[in-house]
Design brief:
299 residues, three-stranded mixed β-sheet, single chain, alpha/beta, globular
Length: 299
């Protein structure tokens, strides 16, 4: 490791569906966080790691700040609020809209209390005229004195190199926090579960995917082979939802499983034998024991 090596934590916050997970994946050049066009896709705090010659940035992705309606929602909001503490920098990701809403105002208050360097990152600039950005910058500039304002497109990668330069300048000198090659603190088993949940979010409508949880009951490599056995149970809150997830003749579950297996094999670099089951666990999102059992813990 070279002298004057820098390392630190940068958290990424914003309202639901603003593109935080897409930006996270873009920053590290690999898909780790799941994405969908539905709000509240991310439920937990996810750390990803970018190691460069001059330093290492640990990005902390968080759920979108929203009005909680279940105990799971309460947990997600608490994760967001805690993640703004004890970091070396904060990115507030917003859409190119020149009226900061209540979630943005609350997050700006927390940034102000923290006192760490903060960047306003305006996402989805590929969807608006450049002139629109001036009014967005003015509106947010009136709300807070940002250390940097960086317009980007997490989808196309535009502006991301400039953002990395800003973040790298904030890092304090320190040792490498994760070994070379590490890209996340998530266990492989958890990533497999999240891949399945992503497909549920993408393929199912309305409230159904938000009422699902995924548990990996077996994740092992066969002796003397590269084949990985992955057994997954999908939980939903209603019997009627179970029928929709399975689909006519098992068609929907097969579609979800096929898409998930392909992403699993891409991530693991190995053949995956995936088996999926669907079970009903009524109102699990308001059951503290079930929430913890599915991995949504405060540790």
């Amino acid at each position: 490791m070279q002298e004057n090596f820098k390392s630190g934590f940068v958290t990424l916050i914003g309202r639901p569906n603003v593109g935080k997970s897409t930006l996270m994946n873009c920053l590290i050049g690999q898909k780790i966080a799941i994405t969908s066009n539905k709000p509240q896709t991310t439920r937990n705090r996810i750390q990803t790691v970018l190691t460069m010659e001059e330093g290492q940035i640990v990005f902390v992705d968080t759920p979108g700040l929203h009005k909680a309606r279940t105990r799971l929602g309460d947990y997600m909001v608490k994760v967001v609020r805690q993640s703004v503490a004890d970091v070396d920098g904060v990115m507030l990701l917003v859409e190119p809209v020149d009226r900061p809403g209540a979630p943005e105002r609350e997050l700006i208050d927390r940034i102000r209390a923290l006192g760490a360097p903060a960047a306003l990152v305006i996402n989805k600039i590929d969807t608006v005229e450049k002139e629109k950005l001036l009014s967005v910058m003015a509106a947010y500039g009136a709300a807070y004195d940002w250390d940097a304002v960086v317009p980007i497109s997490a989808k196309t990668g535009e502006g991301v190199d400039e953002l990395l330069e800003v973040l790298g300048a904030w890092l304090p000198e320190g040792p490498q926090l994760f070994p070379d090659g590490a890209v996340t603190d998530q266990p492989e088993r958890q990533i497999m579960a999240e891949i399945v949940r992503e497909k549920l979010l993408r393929e199912l409508d309305k409230e159904i995917p938000h009422g699902t949880a995924v548990e990996v009951t077996q994740f092992s490599q066969r002796d003397d082979t590269d084949i990985i056995d992955c057994h997954v149970t999908i939980y939903c809150e209603k019997a009627s939802h179970k029928g929709i997830i399975i689909g006519k003749g098992g068609g929907m579950l097969k579609k979800i499983s096929t898409q998930a297996r392909q992403d699993m094999e891409s991530f693991m670099g190995a053949k995956v034998y995936l088996e999926t089951w669907v079970k009903v666990k009524e109102n699990w999102r308001d059951n503290p024991a079930a929430i913890q059992n599915f991995g949504y813990t405060e540790d």
